[in-house]
Design a protein that fits this description.
Layout (H helix, E strand, L loop, with lengths): L5 H4 L21 H38 L3 H25 L1 H12 L4 H20 L2 H4 L1 H7 L4 H13 L1 H18 L4 H25 L3 H28 L15 H29 L5 H39 L2 H10 L6 H7 L2 H26 L3 H27 L2 H4 L1 E4 L12 E5 L12 H12 L5
Antiparallel strand pairs: 1-2
Membrane topology: Multi-pass membrane protein
Main location: membrane
Protein name: Protein DETOXIFICATION
Length: 471
């Protein structure tokens, strides 16, 4: 099926990133004109991304709101099941799909459109298998929570809710790749509309199942399942029924070629996000050891939910930056990549790493800041100083996020960036001051020969693209 594209798009063994022989000539444009053009391109992605992310996350708000009207135990159970159990796996799968961001974005920029469909199918396979491997998190929720010292009532109820959230778990394996597949070919409006309809479905089914049919907290979980699978179906119908003729040519056996390299890049991406995402889930579990554990878990869960809800806006800028960098990098427009990162400096330089395929490096930063510095400080403030939930929350801000700022600022100051061939940048965002140091200026025209420290990541991407050999 994919063989028909051989002559049209060239040999699949060619480099993913286009040769930079065609360089952008921006000499005739002043800075304000270029800034205006780049901002329009950015907002073409960011606007719908803000809407879709807020709408999707609002489903969690609706679920917790309905559970909160039942009882404290029901709210605590849906909080642990959805925020901790689902959150653990959500972070892993969302991180793993960043491999698709790197590959689809650069392939679209290089006009190798048929490869997007193959990468999409590879991502489905890898994420679906990962869902099976992480099923024990859901099946053994009750005994694990009891082993960790949670109350019997909350553990039993959380285990029941977790089982009913297994369909939601599998929906991530298809929804995340479909969303990235469409986003990186600038099909953003459909994602926003499907998210809006999914939110409406969630509100309606939650009311029906919780209040009309009196299914309680299980009904809230089922409503979440239905709404997410509704979004999967909507995006798949749009993708496969003729609206993406260049990038979706049907199912192909080429999706099974080079899976191992794709898995390695996906795992590196997953670890990058998981180390940060899991950190917040661990905090919620730690709260269960405080006095009045049920109330404490409820309080921290609400705070975390509000924080994550607010984070949907900067995360949309992350998406926009990733799309711009990957598309221009794939097209070989080095000057455009450099200018895009400058324009997005205050928004989301974290996504420059994803667009360039440097996921593994970020994982080391998150590991040190969140787990070596952040967690001990939270234990100190929460239990030793007896500050309870406020201590845990304060330790998170002063430890994990603020420590990240200090460490990365020192790294930036002390590093000889001219020698490295890159210039470091620091961004502000997140809960308080969440900082990630990522390169924002290098010789993008020579990105096929990446700066020291990124060679393994770049060669992995090249292996993925080169092993797809249509015969």
């Amino acid at each position: 099926m994919g063989s028909s594209n051989r002559n049209e798009d060239g040999d699949l063994n060619q480099a993913l990133i286009a040769e930079s022989s065609t360089k952008e000539d921006n000499g005739g444009q002043d800075f304000s004109s270029r800034l205006c053009i780049e901002s329009k391109k950015l907002w073409h992605v960011v606007g719908p991304a803000i809407f879709s992310r807020v709408a999707s996350y609002s489903m969690n708000i609706i679920t917790q709101a309905f559970a909160g009207h039942l009882s404290e135990v029901e709210l605590a159970s849906i909080s642990i099941a959805n925020t901790v159990i689902v959150g653990f796996n959500f972070g892993l799968l969302l991180g793993m799909v960043s491999a698709l961001e790197t590959l689809c974005g650069q392939a679209f920029g290089a006009k190798r459109y048929h490869m997007l469909g193959i990468y999409l199918q590879r991502s489905w396979i890898v994420l679906f298998l990962c869902c099976f491997l992480t099923l024990p998190f859901y099946i053994f929720t009750t005994p694990v929570l009891k082993l960790l010292g949670q109350s019997d009532a909350v553990s039993e109820q959380s285990g029941l809710v977790a089982l009913w959230l297994i369909p939601l778990h599998f929906s991530f394996a298809f929804h995340f790749p479909l969303q990235r597949f469409l986003q990186f070919q600038l099909q953003n409006q459909i994602i926003a509309w499907v998210s809006l309809m999914g939110l409406a479905v969630n509100a309606l089914t939650s009311w029906l199942l919780v209040y009309v049919f009196d299914f309680g907290v299980v009904g809230a979980a089922i409503a979440l399942d239905i709404s997410w699978w509704f979004m999967v179906l909507g995006l798949f119908v749009y993708t496969s029924c003729g609206w993406c003729p260049l990038t979706w040519t049907g199912f192909s056996v080429q999706a099974f070629v080079g899976l191992w390299d794709f898995v390695k890049l996906s795992v590196a991406s997953g670890v990058m996000l998981c180390l940060e995402n899991w950190y917040y889930r661990i905090l919620l579990l730690m709260t269960g050891y405080l006095k009045n554990a049920t109330t404490a878990v409820d309080a921290l869960s609400v705070c975390t939910t509000i924080k994550d809800w607010e984070m949907m806006i900067p995360m949309a800028f992350f998406d926009g930056t990733g799309v711009r960098v990957a598309n221009e990098l794939g097209a070989g427009n080095g000057n455009a990549v450099t200018f895009a990162t400058k324009v997005n400096f205050g928004g989301a330089i974290h996504r420059v790493a994803v667009g360039s395929g440097w996921q593994a490096w970020v994982a080391y930063i998150n590991l040190g800041c969140y787990y070596i510095i952040g967690l001990p400080l939270e234990i100190l403030m929460g239990w030793i100083f007896k500050l309870g939930v406020m201590g845990i929350w304060g330790g998170m801000i002063l430890g994990g996020t603020a420590a990240q700022t200090v460490i990365l600022a020192i790294t930036t100051i002390r590093c000889d960036w001219e020698k490295e061939g890159i210039w470091g940048g620091i961004i502000l965002g997140g809960t308080a001051v969440q900082t990630v140091i990522i390169t924002i200026r290098c010789d993008w025209e020579k990105e096929r020969k990446p700066a020291r420290g990124y060679r393994s990541g770049q060669s992995l991407i090249q292996r993925i693209t080169q092993r797809t050999d249509i015969s």
